[in-house]
Amino acid sequence: MRGAATETVAAALESGDPLPGTGGFAGELPDGRLVRDVLGRELCYYDGVEWSHDPDELPRSTLLPAGHVRESGETRRVWTLPDVPANDERPVERVRDAIDSVLDDVDTDGLAVAFSGGVDSALVAAQLDAPLYVVGFEGSADVEAARDSAAAMGCEGDLRVHEVSLSDIEDAVPDVSRVIGRTNAMDVQIALPLYLVARRAAADGYDRLALGQGADELFGGYAKVAKAPEDPRVEADTVRGARREVLETLPNQLERDIRALRAAGVEPVTPLLHDHVVRAALTLSEEWLVSGGVRKRALREAAREWLPDPVADREKKAVQYGSLVAREVDRLARQAGFKRRMDDHVTKYVESRR
């Protein structure tokens, strides 16, 4: 079992508790059952009677879905995210206390932090004694935001900027596509900066990388959540319902990201996805998710305990855009003859490099 003690997982199965106080888990119990946590924060693959955390170790691997158990050749769901009523009693304090308790327990041995300057990664960086890494093209929004935030936090000396070139991206595209097992443009463009920053940290001797993953999904960071129900990208008719929709996409995202990071030589550490933080986030009412155009309101207010206001308030683009990686992959596709007038031209380019 990876990520939690077998006794904890067995007890969670017995009680039906989907959030038993762990950072995620997956693997085999002593009785032979395979299990994976409700958010898919760890990976478990199977092929007949064999199983592994690494799909490359199996000839024909199938990913165990999040929140499922497999026994006697059958797979069934055992956990779903709890439908928690909104609670407006001390929302910021609850979020702050959960984050503080989780970060206080993070082991910093061999640890680096993926730092893009936004509130999510800055919140992690502020409480962990570890070097900060940012990746992007020269002049990219992520590199500039990381420099500005590090200076505001007084930790500019800990920041290590990894400026990449077009050839770096070109070389990494086939490797990233292979290790994540996907060729679609969006997945590859998201995985590329994660892979590159992790590879740089690994080259410097770090084997664990802390990230601010999960904050957008948990705390209402997406525009489509803030605009619910008017935004056609979500089906829900409330902000809380839209937040739940995006949370349910996390297992698919995490498989991609975990595979990219591990292939680069680091183990991901995701404190903002710990059960304690998830529970606190699920209790937030809509006004503490999005209010007056401010997304992730409760998280930003909680972060002021450790971050200066300009960092807590910073808006940031998604990593593939803030690093300019998506733009440069598009450039490579067009240089290779895959023009924008073609349907899904970047995916076609990636497929040509496999």
Structure description:
The protein has 354 residues and is an alpha/beta fold. It is 45% helix and 13% strand. The protein has two domains: 6-77, no CATH class; 91-326, Rossmann fold. It is built from 17 helices and 14 strands. Strand 6 (68-71) and strand 7 (74-77) form a beta hairpin. The longest helix has 19 residues, at 185-203.
Blueprint of the fold:
Blueprint: H1 6-15, E1 26-28, E2 34-36, E3 45-47, E4 50-52, E5 62-63, E6 68-71, E7 74-77, H2 91-104, E8 111-114, H3 119-127, E9 132-136, H4 141-153, E10 159-163, H5 166-180, H6 185-203, E11 208-210, H7 215-219, H8 223-226, H9 239-247, H10 250-264, E12 267-269, H11 275-282, H12 286-289, E13 290-291, E14 294-295, H13 297-303, H14 309-312, H15 319-322, H16 325-335, H17 345-353
Parallel strand pairs: 8-9, 8-11, 9-10, 11-12
Antiparallel strand pairs: 1-2, 2-6, 3-4, 3-5, 6-7, 13-14
Helix pairs in contact: 2-11, 2-13, 5-6, 5-16, 6-10, 16-17
